[in-house]
């Protein structure tokens, strides 16, 4: 399996799901290199950006779990960089 580096952007429209989002992020924390959060209270949005390095299978598992939550949008950008996993 190949490891990839990329970003996952998460937009939360309803803050009541934030605990579920944070729990999922914590569950997959082993491959998260960085996390940035921006609460936009005046717009009713919370934005989280993750920098990740892992296999596409694990990235897809996390983004799929997040995307199934109500009021959550998820987008991923993967670099062309690839590294063989040991």
TrEMBL record:
A Pfam family of the record is: TM1266-like
Coiled coil located at which positions?
Answer: none
The protein's superkingdom reads Bacteria
The record, for InterPro entries, names: Acetolactate_synth/TF_NikR_C, ACT-like_dom_sf, FeFe-hyd_TM1266
Which NCBIfam families does this entry report, sorted A to Z?
A: hyd_TM1266
Protein name per the record: CopG family transcriptional regulator
The organism named in the record is Candidatus Onthomorpha intestinigallinarum
Tell me the organism's taxonomic lineage: Bacteria, Pseudomonadati, Bacteroidota, Bacteroidia, Bacteroidales
């Amino acid at each position: 399996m190949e490891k990839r580096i990329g970003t996952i952007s998460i937009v939360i429209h309803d803050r009541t799901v934030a605990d579920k989002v944070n729990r999922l992020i914590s569950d997959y924390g082993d491959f998260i290199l960085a996390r940035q959060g921006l609460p936009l209270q005046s717009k009713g949005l919370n934005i989280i950006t993750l920098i990740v390095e892992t296999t596409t299978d694990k990235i897809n598992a996390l983004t799929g779990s997040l995307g199934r939550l109500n009021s959550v949008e998820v987008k991923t950008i993967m670099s062309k960089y690839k590294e063989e996993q040991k």
